[in-house]
Amino acid sequence: MTVTQSPDASPTPSLDSRVTPVEPLLAPAALREEIPMSPTAGETVLNGRYEIAQVLNGQNDRLVVVAGPCSIHDPCAALTYAERLSDLARRVSGSLVVVMRVYMEKPRTRLGWKGLISDPHLDGSNDLNSGLRVARSLMVDILETGLPIGCEFLDPLTPRYFSDAVSWGSIGARTVQSQVHRQLTSGLSMPVGIKNATSGHVEDAVDAIVAASKGHVFPGIDDDGVASIVSTSGNPECHVVLRGGSTAPNYGPSDVANALELLGSAGLPQRLFIDASHGNSGKDHERQPHVAADIARRIAGGEIGIAGIMLESFLAAGRQDLVLGRTERLAYGQSVTDACVDWEQTTRMIEELAEAVEAGRSLRRAGAEDTPLLAEAALPATLPALA
Ligand SMILES: O=C[C@H](O)[C@H](O)COP(=O)(O)O
Ligand SMILES: C=C(OP(=O)(O)O)C(=O)O
Predict the structure, then answer these.
(1) In 3-state terms, what secondary structure has residue 193?
(2) What distance in Å separates the CA atoms of residue 90 and residue 69, rounded to the nearest whole number?
(3) How far does the centroid of ligand 1 lie from the alpha carbon of residue 337, in Å?
(4) What is the number of the ligand 1 atom nearest to the C-alpha of 103?
(5) Does residue 370 carry a pLDDT above 60?
(6) Which among 44, 113, 121, 256 is least buried, having the fewest CB atoms inside 10 angstroms?
(7) Which portions of the chain have biased composition (kind: Polar residues) (predicted)?
């Protein structure tokens, strides 16, 4: 068969038959210079990382609460939420380390809006350079309220643009088995929660923690955006997040005990987070308070394996459909991805969790022995020295 080629065809016809023009992406260093972090914001990031690591390794008996919208679509509403959460966080700081969920990248089951970095104008124009600017700028503003930030890392290139602003990272249920994400995690500078797979399998998260704890060498970009060979030293601060599965939740005492046993048999610290949303609430926001109340009751009763909880929460309850290009139709402060609990419910849940931590403490103080949250022997040799 003779293949004829048109005169204006690509000089490499086997390349790019499905790629429309490639455009330049701004460089990470240029973005960081354009939107710098103040010393106060930088201190919030480092304090957040330090406090979360201390809770994870049992040196601090508070509970980490990662709360915020399923996704950020409106920076103004997100900042209003941050200001409220920051006040609440200060009030409960004796019992809880509150981190705001600032999710800028959304992994989709099939198709859908992929988050503020991918499509900041919510109109399908996919203006990634603006998306990176809006995302970093909002993160810096949130840090100024004194709140540390948590987010999911989805694209392997984007962390260089904003990971310096993040105190807690997550690898999601859809990417937990991905080698690319495990390599990425091995080089992240903060504690990272690894979700169980959407199937409910916790083993995948344990495998990812082991893989990410070691150093890797892989392709990436440098601060100038140049394709580079990246070498990492491994991340010893990864932990499981139980998020439920497609057929059942996994926040109950036996689910936690099984996950802790899996961690123990892999030589990992026996502490984990629980996501009150997603598979643990069947994506029904009205079930989240029940999940959080159950966890609060168990913490008050002395259960010690739970280091953190995730809540999907925003100003208004529920969710709404996003029609690309029709943002004037959107209700203020309501999620455009998964349904969230509203601000009033969030306050009640966080206060209840703070009381539970205090009750658990009193129980331990009253006990004949002072039960450590994590036995010294269970700490991995690789844990970094905490200043
Ligand atoms: O947390 C958000 C969603 O659960 C996740 O991005 C998947 O969303 P989808 O199933 O609506 O695509
Ligand atoms: C996508 C998320 O969760 P999961 O990976 O558990 O589905 C999320 O927390 O936004």
Answers:
(1) strand
(2) 20
(3) 7
(4) 1
(5) no
(6) 121
(7) 1-17
